[in-house]
Amino acid sequence: MKFETLRIAGLRCLEGVSLTLAPGINVFTGANGAGKTSVLEAAYLLSHGRSFRSGSRDVLLKRGASALSVFAELRMQDGRLHRLGLGRESGRWQARVDGETAATLGALVQSCAVVCFEPGSHALIAGPSEERRRFLDWGLFHVEHSFLLAWRRYQRALKQRNALLRAGGAPPDNLIAPWEAELAQSGEIIDAQRKAYITALSPHIDALAQTTLPELGALNLRYKRGWDEGMDLAEVLAERRYRDASRGHTTVGPHRADFVVSFEHAPLREHLSRGQEKLCALACLIGQAAHHAEARGEWPVVCLDDLASELDRTHQEWVVAQLLDRDIQVLVTGTEVPHALLSAPKTVFHVEQGNVAGLL
Is 32 annotated as a binding residue? Predict the structure, then answer.
């Protein structure tokens, strides 16, 4: 899939930006604070419904603006053209797909796949478990159609069980048992799908890690389900009911899941330097993109924010080598064209004070 056009209004410092993007490498150059990263944010918003930067979606609105909008024309591998839009006005967010208002944000996200390596990507390795669950679930959402239904069922049941736990005292069995049954059934589905996804994803990440972090030895990707192995979730929920009531929330289940990346010569994540964390995260992200391409028959769009400052020249060249020989659209930012891309075919845009112009 590839963006053909991208129009942005009211997003951070961008206003009235209209771009025609090349199918290959697109480089956005300019001074710090010019708005380069916000172009990548716009593409990422259509794929994730949120920014890769911290903070809520509401902080994306340009200061003084009353509305925000991102529209795109996305060409799929089979030739189909999707028209996608995401907007915020009067405090409400609305998504559109091919001219129709989307019932949920998921309908928009399902139509567009973007992965992004940016200055905060090391959190995928060193950050909280939420980052890794989000990574797994986004990948599953795009390759396993039944995942979203199970995830929604689980979230609804989790909300109801937590409400009963917070009501005070021991929740009556006739009220909480049905929600625990729903939690267990949908949670076991999510767990099985995550395990299968990790198994399919591991070879892609391992192959990349062996070339970019060979000094660390063999890679191991270990999934932690969120409750004791060998026990049914229904059994554990019933056992933990009174303990959870004292805490006011559900302490076991897929919403507590995680995965751990370790290496033969670095069994703990604390053994990794910040640079190694970044390279490991990069291997995970490109590995996820490769698995997506294998499962869906087309690559997601790949964004690389501030590539030159995040990676040294050797690893910049490694990233470019991974992407150049494949049918991938790439969006890259930097204060100047990264050294690794100087001789590569590319389309260059200059960003200044929120304005974006193509360069010859």
Answer: yes
Does residue 34 have a known ligand-binding role?
A: yes
DSSP-derived secondary structure for 251-300 = -SSGGG-EEEEEETTB-SGGGS-HHHHHHHHHHHHHHHHHHHHHHHSSPP
* Residue 220 annotated in ligand binding: no
The alpha carbon of 94 is separated from its chain's Cα centroid by a whole number of angstroms, namely 20
- Chain segment 127-136, per-residue pLDDT in tens: 999 999 999 9
Is residue 30 a contact partner of residue 337, using CB atoms and an 8 Å limit?
Answer: no
Domain boundaries, the chain: 1-113+300-360, 124-295
CA distance linking residue 201 with residue 206, whole number of Å: 9
Q: Is 297 annotated as a binding residue?
A: no
Q: What is the pTM of this model?
A: 0.93
99 annotated ligand-binding residue: no
- pLDDT per position as a tens digit, 294-316: 999 999 999 999 999 999 999 99
Q: Is residue 33 a known part of a binding site?
A: yes
Q: Distance (Å, rounded) from C-alpha 64 to C-alpha 10? A: 9
| 250 annotated binding-site participant | no
- Rg of the chain in Å (alpha carbons): 22
Residue 62's φ and ψ, nearest 5 degrees, are -60, 140
31 among annotated binding-site residues: yes
Pick the CATH number of 1-113+300-360 from 1.10.340.30, 3.30.460.10, 3.40.50.300, 3.40.50.720: 3.40.50.300
In what helix (H) or strand (E) does residue 190 lie, and over which residues does it extend? helix 173-212
CATH C-level class of 124-295: mainly alpha
Same fold: 1-113+300-360 with 124-295? no
Percent of the chain with pLDDT strictly greater than 70: 99
